[in-house]
């Protein structure tokens, strides 16, 4: 849905003053002013730095880029969805629990539909295609439903989304444990791993990455060039003004939570395809990781300013750090310290740069 | 002739049992309770119950067994062992356990079981410190399994020798990679002593028996499969001579195998994992893993019940017993998987 003719296309880094002045920024001005660009620069510097420091240029090997691309896909998907949520001034802390519960539901459905219990235990899946398809739909549906619950609680009960999603984190995690019996779901067909999760398109780009990058680019377009994106940022910028301008704020916010939830469900499927089982012991830091990626990329925690490109880069930085530190043999205890220090420095530098501009 | 105090005692026991059962049924957690080998009313003190035809003991003891977690093959297998021993010695065994490895869920079950005044208790302690007092105050013989207590106030602790398990894993992995190359060690978190024992046992044995193998520094992935996969993927990049991965728990094994498959290195990098659930056995056959260190939950359950019977019979003096007893273990590989010696160790989803 394109914006009407009278409003110029918005830059990816929206400043209220620029919209008011109707100033059309040049490409280089936009780039140099955008956090996403500078984070991209930092990313390249990190990759090159690790590349020089690593034995035999291991960091710069094509196979390394492939495995990093595969690994980042799940968190990038969550970060892109979170960009919209944060852009509207909301917060969703429950995505970790959402991914967990969605992956449990998807795994159970896949194992149940693909064959009888005895067949599945022996590794025979007579109805593989149907089972996987239904399982994927069930997983995404569960995620969207979870998001719907978040959205309804946040908009109807008018409790802050921080508190709501804090609560639903516990509910979701508990539900995942109840459904799975506290253990990872067994006998999920490995074909989702060998047939998707571990495969590359043309032998080059991992399939999950293709999917996620495609979705991210679509959402980039939505944020920048459609009314939906415009309304999201308007709500984040000033909820009251957006309401008075005629935007149905509760319904829009609800749709953002449902979108985030559906993405979490899809992220659960991605992890299922990577490991052929669930991970009920994981996802404790997923929400924070996604939010950190989004904030690093230049999206404001308070709403009104968002960047999908920045979130995509922001998702890569922690992964590049973690991978690089292992490759150059930094002791595992120091890795945690180094990642934290570099993240703080990167965000601080960007904060200084923005303050200088204003 | 049945006397009044006798009737009062039976009635009191019956009421206590019924209340305890009612409380257990109302608890919000889905605790599994295996049917006792006899009806609840017969859980009156042993002197009132009919004498059973037990070969080794003269009385029919009531033994409560509180598992660490139910619904997982490890503990289901332990239950099979405990029930087999109970059948052999004519024991009335009650089996209970929480749905999660969680002291707050296990504690009410321990209390409820003790309320029924069993003759002895077998317990998998979910917290080594908090349960010390409970065991001390129980007033009956207690044997602990799987985990251990911070102080040896129990009669005996029967659990896996994690250092030896690590050593077995080193033997298996070293052989699988033909004694050369690098191996990566993936552990749980620093500070979990049982897990650290698995690491230490592995490293010591590998350095001693396969000195040409380079053991890379231990990496910690917790229960996060993604983290294990990312560490593995990065190590595959930086160490071209990576030949084997030693994983010390389920999630690191899943993560590492995922990364190995994605890097198209399945079969070129050997993975040794722990435990032999049906899923893992299937994965071993499919080549996802190359060795499984199999613990002996069946023996832990069986030996615990047997030891308690012997202590109650006074045929064994508890003060002469060593603090810890380690049941034997095996490493299952594709070659030995179908042999009866290994088959009997594999974990089951239900007792036959």
So how many helices of chain A?
Answer: 16
**CATH fold label of the largest domain in chain B:** Rossmann fold
Percent range of helical residues of chain B: 40-55%
Oligomeric state of this protein: heterodimer
The count of DSSP E runs of length 2 or more, i.e. the number of strands of chain A, is: 2
Low-confidence stretches of chain B: 22-54
Question: What does this 3D model show about the protein?
Answer:
The complex is a heterodimer of chains A (358) and B (352). Chain A is mainly alpha-helical and 358 residues long. Chain A has a single domain (31-357), classed as ABC transporter involved in vitamin B12 uptake, BtuC. Chain A contains 16 helices and two strands. A two-stranded antiparallel ribbon of chain A has the order 1-2. In chain A, a hairpin with a 3-residue loop joins β1 and β2 (205-206). Chain B is an alpha/beta fold. Helices cover 42% and strands 16% of the residues of chain B. In chain B, α1 (4-26) runs antiparallel to α3. Chains A and B meet through α4, α9, α13 and α15 of A and β9, α7, α8 and α9 of B.
Which helices and strands, and how do they pair?
The complex is a heterodimer of chains A (358) and B (352).
Chain A: H1 16-21, H2 27-33, H3 35-53, H4 62-87, H5 95-113, H6 117-122, H7 128-156, H8 161-180, H9 191-197, E1 200-201, E2 205-206, H10 207-225, H11 227-237, H12 239-244, H13 249-275, H14 286-296, H15 308-327, H16 332-357
Antiparallel strand pairs in A: 1-2
Helix pairs in contact in A: 3-15, 4-10, 4-11, 4-13, 4-14, 4-15, 5-7, 5-8, 5-13, 7-8, 7-13, 9-13, 10-11, 11-13, 14-15, 15-16
Chain B: H1 4-26, E1 32-33, E2 62-66, H2 73-89, E3 92-97, H3 103-115, E4 120-123, H4 131-137, E5 142-145, E6 156-158, H5 162-176, E7 181-187, H6 193-209, E8 213-215, E9 219-220, H7 225-238, E10 242-247, H8 250-262, E11 270-274, H9 278-286, E12 291-294, H10 297-312, E13 324-325, E14 330-332, H11 340-343
Parallel strand pairs in B: 2-3, 2-4, 4-5, 5-6, 6-13, 7-8, 7-9, 7-10, 10-11, 11-12
Antiparallel strand pairs in B: 1-3, 12-14
Helix pairs in contact in B: 1-3, 2-10, 5-6, 7-8
């Amino acid at each position: 849905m394109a914006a009407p003719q009278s409003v110029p296309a918005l830059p990816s880094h929206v400043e209220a003053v620029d919209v008011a002045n109707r100033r059309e920024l040049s490409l280089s001005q936009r780039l140099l002013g955008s956090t996403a660009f500078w984070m991209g620069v930092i990313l390249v510097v990190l990759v090159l730095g690790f590349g020089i420091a690593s034995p035999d240029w291991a960091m710069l090997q094509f196979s390394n880029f492939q495995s990093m691309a595969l690994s980042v896909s799940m968190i990038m998907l969550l970060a892109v969805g979170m960009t919209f949520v944060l852009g509207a001034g909301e917060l969703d802390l429950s995505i970790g629990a959402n991914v967990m519960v969605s992956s449990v539901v998807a795994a159970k459905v896949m194992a149940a539909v693909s064959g009888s219990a005895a067949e599945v235990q022996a590794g025979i899946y007579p109805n593989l295609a149907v089972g996987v398809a239904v399982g994927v739909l069930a997983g995404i549906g569960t995620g969207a439903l979870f998001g719907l619950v978040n959205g309804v609680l946040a908009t109807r009960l008018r409790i802050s989304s921080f508190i709501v999603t804090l609560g639903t984190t516990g509910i979701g995690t508990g539900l995942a444990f109840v459904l799975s019996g506290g253990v990872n779901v067994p006998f999920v067909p490995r074909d989702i791993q060998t047939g998707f999760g571990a495969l590359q398109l043309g032998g080059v780009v991992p399939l999950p990455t293709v999917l996620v990058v495609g979705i991210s680019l679509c959402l980039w377009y939505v944020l920048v060039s459609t009314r939906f994106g415009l309304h999201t940022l308007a709500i984040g910028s000033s909820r009251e003004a957006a309401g008075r301008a005629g935007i149905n704020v509760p319904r829009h916010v609800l749709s953002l939570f449902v979108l985030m939830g559906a993405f979490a469900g899809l992220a659960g499927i991605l992890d299922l395809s990577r490991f052929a089982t669930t991970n009920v012991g994981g996802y404790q830091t997923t929400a924070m990781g996604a939010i950190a990626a989004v904030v690093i990329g230049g999206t404001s925690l308070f709403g009104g300013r968002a960047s999908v490109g920045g979130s995509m880069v922001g998702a890569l930085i922690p992964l590049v750090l973690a991978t690089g530190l292992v490759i150059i043999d930094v002791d595992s205890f120091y890795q945690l310290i180094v990642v934290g220090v570099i993240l703080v420095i990167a965000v601080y530098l960007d904060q200084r740069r923005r303050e200088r501009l204003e | 002739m049945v006397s009044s105090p006798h009737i009062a005692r039976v009635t009191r026991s019956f009421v206590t049992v019924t209340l305890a059962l009612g409380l257990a049924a109302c608890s919000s957690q889905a605790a599994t309770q295996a049917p006792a080998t006899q009806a609840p009313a017969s859980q009156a003190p042993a002197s009132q119950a009919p004498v059973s035809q037990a070969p080794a003991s003269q009385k029919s003891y009531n033994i409560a067994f509180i598992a660490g977690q139910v619904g997982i093959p490890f503990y289901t297998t332990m239950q099979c062992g405990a029930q087999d021993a109970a059948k052999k010695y004519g024991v009335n065994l009650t089996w209970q356990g929480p749905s999660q490895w969680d002291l707050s869920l296990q504690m009410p079950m321990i209390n409820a079981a003790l309320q029924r005044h069993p003759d002895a208790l077998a317990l998998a302690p979910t917290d080594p410190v908090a349960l010390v007092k409970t065991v001390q105050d129980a007033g009956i013989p207690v044997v602990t399994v799987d985990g251990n207590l911070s102080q040896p106030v129990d009669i005996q602790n029967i659990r896996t020798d994690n250092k030896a398990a690590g050593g077995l894993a080193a033997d298996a992995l070293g052989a699988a990679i033909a004694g050369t190359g690098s191996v990566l060690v993936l552990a749980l978190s620093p500070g979990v002593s049982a897990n650290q024992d698995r690491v230490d046992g592995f490293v010591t044995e590998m350095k001693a028996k396969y000195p040409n193998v380079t053991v890379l520094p231990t990496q910690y992935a917790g229960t996060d499969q993604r983290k294990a996969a990312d560490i593995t993927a990065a190590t595959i990049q930086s160490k071209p001579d990576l030949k084997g991965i030693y994983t010390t728990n389920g999630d690191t094994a899943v993560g590492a195998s995922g990364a190995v498959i994605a890097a198209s290195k399945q079969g070129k990098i050997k993975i040794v994992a722990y435990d032999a659930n049906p899923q893992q056995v299937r994965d071993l056959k499919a080549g996802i893993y190359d060795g499984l260190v199999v613990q002996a939950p069946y023996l832990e359950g069986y030996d615990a019940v047997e030891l308690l019977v012997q202590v109650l019979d006074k045929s064994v003096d508890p003060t002469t017993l060593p603090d810890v007893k380690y049941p034997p273990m095996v490493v299952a590989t594709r070659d030995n998987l179908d042999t009866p010696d290994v088959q009997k160790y594999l974990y089951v989803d239900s007792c036959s």
